[in-house]
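One-letter codes give the sequence; backbone shape is given numerically. An example follows:

. . .
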Amino acid sequence: MVQGTAMILESPIWVEGQATEVLGELGAESIAVYRFLSERFSVEDPAQDRLFQFVYRSFYRLDSAGLSAEFKGRYFELMSIAKSACTVDLREIARELGDFPNLKGQSSLQFSFATKMAATVCARKPIYDAEVASIFGFQRPPA
C-alpha cells in the first residue's frame, strides 16, 4: 500500500496467527542473535556501534551480497536516522541505497535490505526477501 510518498508495509494478520509455528522452524541460535540485535539496537547508535554492525551484517547476509563498504556505511547511517525519527521511508532508503554500485560496478535495488532495516527500527514491519518470497510463491520478474 502506498500512502503519500511513503510506502507502508504491514504484516498480514495470518502471519501473526502462525507465529508459534514460524518460531518453531527457527533455530535457537537465530533467535538468540535476533534478540541480541534487537536489544543492542534499542540502546546503541547503529551508525557508531561496530559490534552491532558486524553481527547485523553477518545475520542478514549483507557481507555476502557483494555490496561496497560505502553502501554498508550509508546503510547504518540511514538506520540511525530512521531510529532517531522512529520511522522508516522504504522508498527513500531503497532509492538512496540504489545509488551505490555493488562490487561489480552495477546498480541494484536492495529492497530486502531496506525491509530488514525497517523491521529492525520497527519490529512490526515485515521483511521481504527471497525466503519470504518463496513462501508466497513469488518469483522475480524477467529482466
Remarks:
- Residues 1-8 have pLDDT under 50 and may be disordered.
